[in-house]
Amino acid sequence: MRMMRTKSFWGAGRPHLEYAPLPARIDRPEPLRPSGPVTLLHPRPAETRAIPAAKIGDAVKNGQKLSLYGNGDYVTSPVTGAITALAPFPGNFGRNYTAVSIAPARPEVFDDAFQAVRQSPSLAAAADFLAAAPGAPGLQRLADAGRPIKTLVVCGVDQDLLVFTQQYVLAARGHDIQRGIRILKETAGIEEVVILTRKEAVQGFGHIVGRVVGVEHRYPSALPPLVMARLFGRAVPAGRTCEDLGFCFMSAEAVAAVGVAFGTGRIPTTKFLTVIPRDGIARLAEAPIGTRIGDVLQRLGAAMSEGDRLVLGGPMRGTAVFSLDHPVQPDTDAVLVVDAAAALHVSDYPCINCGECVRVCPARMQINLLVRYLEAGKFEEAEGSYDLGSCVECGLCSYVCVSKIPILQYITLAKHELARTRRTESTNA
Amino acid sequence: MPDRKKLVVAYAPFWHNGSRITDRSLQIVLAALPAALFGVYRFGIPALGVLALAVSSAVLWELAFTRVAKRPASVGDGTAAVIGLLFGMMLPATLPWWAVVTGTFLAIVVARQIYGGVGANTFNPAAVAIAILMLAWKQRMDLDAALVNYAFDFPAAFPLAAVKAFGTTAVKDLPLMDLFLGRQVGGIGTTCGAALLAGGAYLILKGVIRWEIPISFLAGMAATAAVFHAVDPVRFASPAFHLLTGFTLIGAFFLATEDSSSPVNFIPMLIYGAVVGSIAVLIRNIGVFAEGLVFAVLVGNLIHPLLDKIRPRALGKVE
Fold this sequence. Notes:
heterodimer, A: 429 residues, alpha/beta, four-stranded antiparallel β-sheet, 18% strand, B: 319 residues, mainly alpha, 60% helix
């Protein structure tokens, strides 16, 4: 597959990138069994001296919560077995994890801690068990009394190109989604449920309670800030979130996970993901969270060679990882293999002010000016005068940049640095 | 078990539309080439010599300066060649070699590299060089004086100079179609309106330049010229005459549209084009120079950052 999408001969128009539709015939894939230990990435506090409250050799049940630092963070074991390793794992943008490796063992024993909670559903209990469930529901967003959520938006569309994971879940798991919506409505005081789907599929979801809204096929119309502005007419003010306006976006898979958990009493631990190998023919896989990406690729017969790029997520917004040992995470909707020969190389060439980025930006930002501030590290000015906070992080500016400036990376870095500075300032104030 | 393949980590997005600065430069050169070749056909080997020297010296100045200043080599992106070519196309065919080389020095080193190189020039480098040469070597840049030894099968006077000196009666016998097809005196690559128009249309369709600037440029020029012509048709030439003579079409499609010295937003592009077009007519009609279009471009370049302040409201902008 050509990873380099060349412009058409007559290039006056804007790039026309469309979201992938769900393949017409798609069967539920056979779930993978992990070949070796699964690895769970547990958030680690900044203090390096924090001692994990688990040790090598500890027995773990399927669905068991592992809270290593007693601060509310936890992971959920997808297997029954024993902990074989605990190792520090540095993530992107200064995030730290402890990689918990668990070797599966027979027989499968399911943890029953959630069974007790299930009888009397409450939001706090759900949030206390489902943070690491497939789709990463992020239920604490619904529990913030300071900004009550009125509208739950169930995303049955995928946010990146080539990916159809959420479309599949919406189409195949309607029953679970239905139950999940009911539980969330009952427990979180949600007034309205909106289901996002592809534009032509709006008619197909009468069995799910909620207002069905069709999303345009053209990238990046499925990104929450653009859905807010274009479909709901509520532009999110720069620097604030959808939650601030009372909207909570949750993937179809996350809502289905809530439904499954309360329906069966077991925390679901397998994740659907779209795998896009080098041949470009996307396939659906189902794997326990924590499975090596390498195992997923091997199972689908997807080859990788030295110098290739392994991307978690899609081609526009994904994150490259450095190892095939990287685990499937609760929010890993896709795995993309980019051929070394077709890979894009960014450059440090200066902006030539051609204006392509300005014309392609869905947030109408002055990227030609913004990028000059970002390159110079002047993040405050970038935010104050050049609308850094408006960015929806679609990556189209980098996609069209003639100078191949890594604009999206600059923007992400600037946002991260500003947030970090503010955190530090408020801590030291 | 562990697979120790070395993978490469990079930033999103992992796709790109494949556009390159070198390709843009190549497209501009291709678009300008018909008009330049017409100039060679019209003015002969001297014109070819001037064009070749302009392009090659521009490239060499770029190479030399980036070497001396220890800047990354930028000569491969073709922008220096584009500047050299456009500069050469506006010169009289008989300009001596030292003036050409000085001109490309002014364009590349003074107007571009000193400002910071690729993408950092405030003014169009080719326009700056032409402007300085016009001020410094007035006689050499005077098209009538420069082309005095040529024998043409059409009136051998620079039409704009003729109008300025003698009024519209001097050019009333020039058919507009002749002007459009290049039967007129001018800079090497500026005489054939048809070729320049075709090149400009090609660039617009390829997405290298935007239609807003040339169209508003021509509209602004036509409107201003129409006002003058209506007031005094004896002194001031018709809009069509202005559109087809001098540096108008090369200015509209190739000079005013230069990336780094022109605005990028819709309304600013329209204002910029209209301002440059109308100032060009003001200079022609009531200024000192018979053809002062490059000065109009420079004025436009000067106000472009200001114009680009007129911008759409960003998504969720908080006042």
